[in-house]
Each structure stands twice: as structure tokens, then as C-alpha cells.
Amino acid sequence: MKLVSIDTIPGQEIEALGLVKGTIVQSKNIGRDFMAGMKTLVGGEIAGYTEMLNEARMIATKRMVDEAEKLGADAIVGVRYGSSAVMQGAAEVVAYGTAVKFL
Fold first, then answer.
1. Strand, coil or helix: what is 17?
2. CB pairs under 8 A, 24+ apart, for 50-53?
3. What pTM does this model have?
4. Pair 75, 2: CB distance under 8 Å
5. Which CATH class is domain 2-102?
6. For residues 60 and 22, is the Cβ–Cβ distance under 8 A?
7. How far apart are CA 103 and CA 89, in angstroms?
8. pLDDT tens digits, 59-96
9. At 89, phi and psi to the nearest 5?
């Protein structure tokens, strides 16, 4: 499945099949929270959270691709990611775009 952030695929005629999305709500664990708290004292990247959000984006992307495959799509254009805190200690990651078929 080809994923692009632009709205077209150069050299391809496409037909839009519809919006597809994948979401996940990921929570932090106590070990990560403790280490993150310690890291805020000295500054720098909080690697545990970076890994958690990277994993969440991969899962959201897979769910979006699965939805597109059910529609018979060849690609997804206009791919975007978003995230938000849904409660203390948990974040939602969403991946979305337009499923398209090559003509």
C-alpha cells in the first residue's frame, strides 16, 4: 500500500474511495512516568515516551491501511497524523487519509 502526504500520486490517475482512519489510545506506565519525571529535572528527550508514541503511530497507520484494504484501495493520499490527551496519562493517536484506487 502506497502512503503519501500529498493529495495526488504523480503519474497516476486515481479515484477516491473515501476517508480511512486508524486510532489508538495509548497509556503511560508507572515506570515510564517515574523516569520521565526524573528526566524533566535535567532536560532532554524522554526516550520512553518517544518510543511509546512511535509505536502508537505504527499501530494507527496499520489500522488505517487495513481499513483502506477492505475498500480495495491501492494507496492512501493526504495522510495526516494527530494526537491529543484524552485523559491524564493517556494519549490518542489518529492516522487518516483518503483511500484511492488507480485507474
1. strand
2. 52/26, 52/28, 53/26, 53/83, 53/91, 53/93
3. 0.83
4. yes
5. alpha beta
6. yes
7. 45
8. 999 999 999 999 999 999 999 999 988 777 678 999 99
9. 90, 5
Place of cell 483502506: 68
d(CA 59, CA 18): 20
The residue count of the chain comes to 103
In angstroms, the CA 41 to CA 79 distance is 36
Q: What is the pLDDT of residue 53?
A: 86
Unique residue bearing C-alpha cell 493529495? 7
Q: Which residues contact 77 (CB under 8 A, 6 or more apart)?
A: 4, 6, 7, 8, 9, 14, 97, 98, 100
Helix (H) or strand (E) run with residue 23 in it:
strand 14-27
Q: In the chain, helix, strand, coil percent, each to 5?
A: 35, 40, 25
Q: What are the residue ranges spanned by the domains of the chain?
A: 2-102
C-alpha cell at 73: 484501495
